[in-house]
């Protein structure tokens, strides 16, 4: 049984700068979560989604690779993906929305957004990302890049995120993911405060583990 753990989801600025405190906090929690799950016999996969949308095209790959290498020095990661590449999976994403009327409305909205801005809204990117991790969207073009052999689809995903990501995650859940039955109950989030003196507690981690672990064993 496999759980995908997302760490270090932050925005890269045009010069490649990023919020190092947020990255370090997510890694501390990611390491704790990995240990808690593996102590219960659950396999884990550490992954990173890089928000590269502010980067100039000519410098994007270099800056993203530098960031991934920086994260890798703090915690070993198994895969990463650039957010700007997720729109290539839009058709597959929309096909997972079973109710035709909802699918049509979402499709019209998202294609209009792409025409107006050149990219998907954050909530759609988030949804595609979670569904890729679960294997519900196939990835033959390898939008997700692996350090070694590609992992199989995760049975559950947990994203460790700064508090500022709560709103777009909730929009993703309410606007898209709740309409995809195969993802129900398989996507979990743990949020941490952005301030330097904010509490980085373990209660949410334990809650996520307790929620997932019975499901993992019953899933077998």
Helix-strand layout with pairing:
Blueprint lengths: L1 E6 L12 H20 L3 E8 L6 H18 L4 E4 L7 H6 L4 H18 L4 H12 L11 E2 L9 E7 L3 H10 L11 E6 L10 H17 L1
Parallel strand pairs: 1-2, 1-5, 2-3, 5-6
Antiparallel strand pairs: 3-4
Helix pairs in contact: 1-7, 5-6
Verbal overview:
It is a single chain. With 220 residues, the chain is an alpha/beta fold. It has one domain: Rossmann fold (3-Layer(aba) Sandwich), CATH 3.40.50. The chain has seven helices and six strands, in the order E-H-E-H-E-H-H-H-E-E-H-E-H. The protein is globular and about 45 Å long.
In short, what is this structure?
By secondary structure, the chain is an alpha/beta fold. It is 46% helix and 15% strand. The chain has one domain (2-219): Rossmann fold, CATH 3.40.50.
Keywords, separated by commas or semicolons:
220 residues; alpha/beta; Rossmann fold; six-stranded mixed beta sheet
